[in-house]
Amino acid sequence: MNAKWYGTEREELRFRPIFEFTNQGSLRYIWSMKDLVIKSYGDLSFHRTIGELIRIHSENQEDVREVAKGLVDWAGVRKMADLGCGYGWFEEALGTGFDLMLGIDCLASNGTGFLSAAQRVAKTARFANLQLPCPIDVESNYFDLVIAAYSMYFFPDILPEAKRILRPGGTLLIITHSAGMLEEGEEFFDFSNLREVINNFSAENGERALRQYFTDVSAVDYHNSLVFNKDDGDALAKYIDFKREFISKDISPIVVKVKLLYELETRGIMRFNKNDRVFVVHK
Ligand SMILES: C[S@@+](CC[C@H](N)C(=O)[O-])C[C@H]1O[C@@H](n2cnc3c(N)ncnc32)[C@H](O)[C@@H]1O
């Protein structure tokens, strides 16, 4: 709790200790990699600020949600489930007319944000605070659409359950990162812990995982880079703050921030791969 917070004064976003001393005097992690990453998704207004920052610094100005939405035949979609729904980012981009919208997330604090987005678009909105993978309490063949945006790498073992709850002909839509997103950072640092999380389900290996359960699998790439110019040091610092839990098991976020701000100053421009892939699967 003592570590210094850079960039904003908000109490709840301070760095927290991630190591402790064991009785034998050696250091051990207090939180797992997953715990650390998940913690970073609990703050709604900071998440929104970063969403806007990402939009401004994206080379590709097309919203990835619009790309994903264009791949779904919405005519038959009345009941939808969102796995790892966060605060309802995907639902914010949807039109109205759904009968049921179920959001599932392991962070209870995401419930309020999700429900307000889901209530706008669906007659009935529900939030389930679950740690996936686990059984989802609905009958088989129930949902017309199941989505997972930037979350499948946390729980790839949910795929058989996702298939069970999807009706025949229903769609599973997954937006996920490319493992290449770490390449620029890896010029300076070793991100092997983070790479392990992303590699659970990435643009590169997702199809292999999906084909274990589904035959109708296709994918569309969404190419993007985040670009920071010399005057964008504040924005880059904020972006690293946002990623701090993601990177803190590999290296101190403060070290990353100092190094990347130095590189920005020296090079005048920094570009980070933010390529995604959208998988469209039919049961
Ligand atoms: C990167 S965020 C994406 C949130 C949202 N889908 C979006 O695109 O904004 C990943 C989400 O997955 C949730 N999550 C991570 N692990 C989970 C698990 N094992 N079970 C349920 N939710 C999980 C996190 O709490 C977080 O809200």
Explain what this protein looks like in three dimensions.
The chain is α/β, with parallel strands linked by helices. The chain has one domain (41-282): Rossmann fold. Helices cover 32% and strands 25% of the residues. The protein has a seven-stranded mixed sheet with strand order 5-4-3-6-7-11-8. Strands 1-2 form a two-stranded antiparallel sheet. The chain has a two-stranded antiparallel sheet with strand order 9-10. Helix 5 (159-165) links the parallel strand 6 (143-149) and strand 7. 34% of the residues are buried. S-adenosylmethionine is lined by residues 38, 41, 84-86, 89-90, 104-107, 110, 130-132, 149-151, 154-155. S-adenosylmethionine binds next to strand 4.
- Give me the Rg, rounded: 19 Å
CATH class membership? Alpha Beta
Averaged pLDDT = 87
Q: Structural class, from secondary structure content?
A: alpha/beta
Ligand kinds: S-adenosylmethionine
List the strand order in the largest sheet: 5-4-3-6-7-11-8
Question: What percent of residues adopt helix (DSSP H or I)?
Answer: 25-40%
Looking at the structure, what is the overall shape?
globular
- Give me the CATH superfamily: Vaccinia Virus protein VP39
Strand-and-helix sequence, N→C? EEHHHEEHEEHEHHHEEHHHEE
Question: What does the largest sheet look like?
Answer: 7 strands, mixed
- How many strand segments? 11
| Count of discrete structural domains | 1
Q: What's the CATH architecture?
A: 3-Layer(aba) Sandwich
CATH topology: Rossmann fold
Q: How much of the sequence is in beta strands?
A: 15-25%
Question: Uncertain regions: pLDDT < 50 for 5+ in a row?
Answer: 1-19
